[in-house]
From TrEMBL:
Name of the protein in question: Leucine-rich repeat-containing N-terminal plant-type domain-containing protein
GO cellular component, one term: plasma membrane
Keywords from the UniProt entry: Cell membrane, Glycoprotein, Leucine-rich repeat, Membrane, Repeat, Signal, Transmembrane, Transmembrane helix
Predominant cellular place of this UniProt entry's protein: membrane
Annotated transmembrane regions: 836-856
Organism in which the protein naturally occurs: Zingiber officinale
Location within or outside the cell: Cell membrane
Length: 1091
């Protein structure tokens, strides 16, 4: 009975716990009920996850309709969302931005990773690629989605360290962390050890992720036997150590090591040859030379290889050598841009298997004639051999390549005509035969290639007419036939190609008129019919092609006026109507262009060599983007000050004035901001006076004075006002045009003097002031010293001074040439001889005084050389510290100072750690020893330091050397040469130094010779477990090292193998072995990487 009562007696705290527990159960049931209610409404979506998805959507940039379907209760039917049919949990979330080919992700609006994402605990698939996360860090909480099998964070503007907690995703099979290859790369990982936990990983893409400090990357990735795809292109991979692990990536089918910065050695190629299942290998842009023979052997072992990419590499050897053992299953071969890689085309084709689908040999030293056997490669889809030395004709058998989609034989010495059976290539989308020596006509059968999108035949010797059948190519986007000998008219059937964007038939012998139906090509943006014999008027229908941004009809025989419809071409960037017979006034064009809603885009306007009349309209100044203006050789008249009228009438803008954003040429535009790159420099213009860089108004009938407002065009490079009727003087403020390169004011009626400040125009290299009424003296100095041609000033009878005859009014001021000649005639030669004599005497006295003291005074000589040595060592240390990289494969120790003094450093060392530490500093301060050290810390200094700490605590047990052992000091040098790199990185950290001394010099090992000491040291280091973390070696073997040490030390080593020198009793005054070595500057040169 008592037991029952005790059972019923419950403490107050227990009651509260039960109440809380019951409340939690009820709340949980309520949440489940809510989810069940929505499930019962006819959908599988859980309400809690639906709310999480809505929160995620709120932080995603979505300008279009990507997430427009995210409405209603059934989230499982939303775009990019998938749920488990049984449980209703969201298992798939695809939020990748659809514009995957946009190279500027930063132009996309910013997104954020909403924390609600991590409430979707059952996600198996997550894709956030191609969004703009504004260089945020990769969220650590992604590791909480432990069911993930697919994770894609590629090209999403993530930044910082890739969290190692991603190693918790034990079910992950596909991991894509690819980054955009823009420098500097800010997404990085310093250690890939977390990858070894991903036991199911099959796909890994870390292209363009900075892995420069992941020194053990190959060993760690090699621990993933399930890996099938490994993409590490542009990842700044460290150098692979000479000792490679046993190949464990037996499932690997695709490997991308492009842009690997180090030499791909023969041992590395042999290691790769074990990938028997490898189908895709990319070693592009590996800029270190590797041997073609070794590559051939490795490729011969890859029997399943289907795709080989070796773009822009440096391979020593022949193409045929590389391919002689290649797999017979090869389908894709890309050897572009290897420049000097030679090979004969017939030999190459004879090696390759007939099932080849892709062959690219562009920019190589490929030579010979294309053989008829090319027709045997009927599976080819891509064939490009541009920029090579291929000769001869295109074989007729090319018509058998019915699957061909791209053919590029540009920039070769190909002769003959285009084969008639090219019309059989009905799948061909791109045909490039530009800049060869092809003759004959364009085959009519080319109109049968209905898939053709790009046709480039420019720069050849093609004759005949443009086939009308080209109008059947409805998919054509670009048609470039310029630079041939085509005759006849532009066929009207061209207008049927409604998708055409680019049409260039310039530099031919075409006649007739421009087709009036040209406006049917509504997508046309580039039209060039210049340098032909076209006649008639410019069709007004061109003004209906609103996408047009480039129009060149120059150098023809066109007549009539500029169509008023051109004023509708608000997107027109370049307009060239020069060298025709066009009449009318310029106002017809500009009246409508000035009314463009967003302002006219016109940047270059040339109407030179026509019959234009009237005056220059004032609205020309409203072309805010104009940079080049050429109205030369017309009949324009009147003042051209009118084009600046809008500037003189303009008022200061305010922020609330919309006109500030689009002002006239030369006006104040505070809202404008533009970047212009010229000659390698970029300039930012925030308040633009004008973008105009070139004005040519020569050979017209312009009158009046040169307007002062012209001097506001501060970026003007070229100005030509010659052959007009200008009067007045040259403006004094013309020197404000500081960027002026060429100035031509010839053949006018200008008066007055030449402004003296013209000499301040440092860039002025061309000047013509001839045939005016200028007077006075020609300015001297600066740029005018280069204008020594009298023709520059000819026709100005009142001008005088160099290079013209001297001014009679002032004989005292004469040109520099005359002054120089007079000086030579008045005895200046004697003064020059005396000057040279005094210089020679001073040099001789100073030279022998210096060297006499150096020869006679030994102490001064020694002091000077020691000072030079100290300065050299100090500079060496500063440069090593500043530019040294500890993440590379070949570390160089950074010295702490100059050469140590003999008297201070060569004293008795106290026993114990302090003595060893002083010895460390002594050795590391001497350049001759440490600069030959080659050592690679694979795991970084942290891992190595941890090993040393373990040695102190006794957790590592190994034979050790005792301090009292009679060990010669040369042994200490050997130890430090082998392991000094790690020590010098933390010289001020006594823990590391002390740990080394205790590990290596506290023991009872007996040694009798230098060989024994070295053997013990190497064995001890290996037993300590340091060797797996340090790749070090002697180039040949231990005996070879000893020979070099003995040769370097000379007779000082004779006693070392016997009694040796006590470590506690070093020689004083530099008489010991070490002091003598330092004094002699011993140089140990046989250290290298362990093979």
């Amino acid at each position: 009975m008592t037991l029952n009562w005790d059972f019923m007696v419950i403490s107050s705290s227990s009651k509260h716990a039960i109440v809380i527990f019951v409340a939690l159960v009820l709340l949980s049931n309520r949440a489940n009920c809510d989810d069940s209610l929505h499930a019962n409404k006819g959908n599988n979506c859980l309400e809690s996850e639906r709310r999480a998805l809505i929160a995620i959507k709120s932080d995603m940039y979505d300008p279009g309709e990507r997430l427009s379907s995210w409405t209603g209760y059934d989230c499982c039917k939303w775009r990019g969302v998938a749920c488990d049919n049984l449980t209703g949990y969201v298992t798939r979330l695809d939020l990748h931005y659809p514009d995957e080919y946009n190279p500027w992700v930063e132009s996309i609006g910013a997104s954020k990773v909403n924390p609600s994402l991590f409430e979707l605990k059952h996600l198996r698939y997550l894709d956030l690629s191609f969004n703009n996360f504004s260089y945020a860090h990769v969220p650590h909480m992604i590791a909480s989605l432990v069911h993930l099998e697919y994770l894609n964070l590629s090209n999403a503007c993530f930044d910082g360290l890739i969290p190692p907690v991603l190693g918790n995703l034990s079910h992950i099979q596909h991991l894509d962390l690819r980054n955009y290859c823009t420098y500097p790369i800010t997404l990085f990982s310093n250690n890939l050890s977390w990858l070894s936990n991903l036991n199911s990983l099959q796909y890994l893409d870390m292209s363009c992720v900075n892995l420069s400090k992941a020194t053990n990357w190959l060993h760690q990735i090699n621990l993933i036997p399930t890996l099938q795809v490994l993409l590490l292109g542009g990842a700044s991979l460290p150098r692979v150590p000479p000792s490679l692990p046993t190949f464990n990536l037996t499932s690997l089918t695709m490997l991308d090591l492009s842009q690997y910065e180090w030499n791909i050695s023969a041992s590395m190629l042999r290691w790769l040859s074990n990938a028997s299942n490898l189908e895709h290998l990319d070693l592009s842009k590996c800029m270190r030379v590797f041997d073609a023979e070794a590559l051939s052997v490795a490729l011969g072992a890859l029997h399943n290889l289907r795709k080989l990419v070796l773009v822009e590499t440096q391979i020593a050897g022949q193409v045929s050598t590389i391919l002689k053992n290649v797999s017979r299953m090869l389908q894709h071969l890309d050897l572009q841009w290897n420049f000097f890689l030679p090979g004969e085309i017939s030999t190459i084709l004879s090696i390759l298997p007939h099932q080849l689908e892709f062959l690219a040999l562009d920019m190589n030293d490929i030579y010979g004639r294309i053989p008829e056997m090319l027709g045997n490669y009927t599976s080819l889809r891509h064939l490009s051999m541009s920029y090579t030395r291929i000769t001869g004709e295109i074989p007729r058998t090319i018509g058998k390549l019915i699957h061909l989609e791209l053919l590029d034989l540009s920039i070769n010495d190909i002769t003959g005509e285009m084969p008639l059976n090219v019309g059989n290539l009905t799948n061909l989308e791109e045909l490039y035969l530009s800049e060869t020596n092809i003759t004959g006509s364009i085959p009519e059968s080319l109109g049968n290639v209905i898939s053709l999108k790009y046709l480039n035949l420019f720069g050849n010797k093609i004759t005949g007419e443009i086939p009308k059948t080209l109008g059947s190519l409805q998919n054509m986007l670009q048609l470039d036939l310029h630079g041939n000998f085509l005759t006849g008219q532009i066929p009207t059937t061209i207008a049927r190609i409604s998708n055409l964007c680019y049409l260039d038939v310039s530099e031919n012998r075409l006649t007739g008129e421009i087709p009036i139906t040209i406006d049917r090509i509504s997508n046309l943006s580039y039209l060039d019919v210049s340098n032909n014999y076209l006649t008639g008027e410019i069709p007004t229908t061109i003004g209906r092609i609103f996408n047009l941004w480039y129009l060149d009809v120059s150098e023809n025989n066109l007549i009539g006026e500029i169509p008023k419809t051109f004023g509708r071409l608000c997107n027109l960037w370049m307009l060239d109507l020069s060298l025709n017979n066009i009449i009318g006034e310029l106002a017809n064009l500009l009246d409508d262009l000035s009314n463009c809603p967003q302002g006219a885009a016109l940047s270059s306007l040339s109407i030179a060599d026509n019959n234009m009349s009237g005056s220059i309209p004032s609205n020309l100044g409203l072309l805010a983007h104009l940079q080049e203006l050429d109205l030369s050789s017309n009949s324009l008249q009147g003042h051209f000050r009118a084009m600046f009228q809008d500037y003189t009438n303009s008022k200061p803008c305010h922020d609330n004035n919309l006109q500030c954003a689009r002002g006239p040429m030369g006006s104040y535009r505070p809202k404008d901001k533009i970047l212009i790159t010229a000659k390698g420099s970029t300039y930012e213009y925030i308040i633009i006076l004008s973008l105009v860089t070139s004005i040519d108004l020569s050979h017209n009938n312009l009158s009046g004075e040169i307007p002062n407002e012209l001097m506001m065009l501060r970026d003007l490079h070229f100005l030509s006002l010659s052959n007009n009727h200008l009067t007045g003087t040259i403006p004094e403020n013309i020197a404000d045009l500081t960027e002026l390169f060429s100035l031509d004011l010839s053949m006018n009626n200008l008066t007055g003097t030449i402004p003296s400040n013209l000499s301040a125009l440092n860039f002025l290299s061309h000047l013509n002031l001839s045939f005016n009424n200028l007077s006075g003296r020609i300015p001297t100095g600066n740029q005018f010293l280069t204008f020594d041609d009298p023709a520059i000033y000819a026709g100005n009878k009142d001008l005088c001074g160099w290079p013209l005859p001297e001014c009679p009014s002032d004989e005292a001021q004469r040109g520099p040439l005359h002054a120089r000649d007079d000086d030579d005639g008045n005895g200046s030669k004697l003064e020059k001889v005396l000057d040279y004599a005094f210089i020679a005497m001073g040099f001789i006295v100073g030279f022998w005084t210096y060297w006499g003291v150096m020869i006679m005074k030994k102490s001064i000589r020694i002091a000077l050389f020691q000072m030079v040595d100290r300065i050299y060592d100090w500079i060496y240390v500063q440069l090593a510290v500043k530019f040294g990289s500890y993440g590379s494969d070949n570390y160089r120790a950074d010295q702490e100072g100059g050469q140590c003094g003999r008297e201070d450093d060569a004293q008795d060392f106290p026993p114990g750690p302090d003595g060893f530490k002083l010895l460390v500093k002594l050795v590391l301060s001497h350049r001759h020893f440490v600069e030959h050290l080659e050592l690679l810390v694979v795991d970084g200094p942290e891992s190595l330091e941890e090993l040393f700490r373990e040695g102190i605590t006794g957790r590592l047990q190994a034979p050790q050397l005792h301090q009292s052992t009679r060990v010669p000091r040369i042994v200490a040098f050997v130890v430090l040469l082998l392991l000094g790199e790690a020590l010098q990185r933390d010289l001020e950290d006594e823990l590391v130094v002390v740990s080394f001394s205790e590990v290596l010099f506290e023991g009872s090992a007996e040694v009798e010779s230098l060989e024994d000491v070295l053997e013990v040291i190497l064995d001890e280091v290996e037993e300590l477990g340091v060797l797996p973390h340090i790749a070090l070696a002697v180039e040949d073997d231990l005996d070879h090292l000893l020979v070099h040490l003995k040769e370097a030390a000379g007779d000082l080593l004779e006693g070392i193998e016997g009694e040796g020198t006590d470590l506690d009793a070093v020689g004083e005054g530099g008489d010991g072995a070490t002091g003598a070595l330092l004094e002699r500057g011993v140089e140990v040169s046989s250290f290298g990487s362990r093979r």
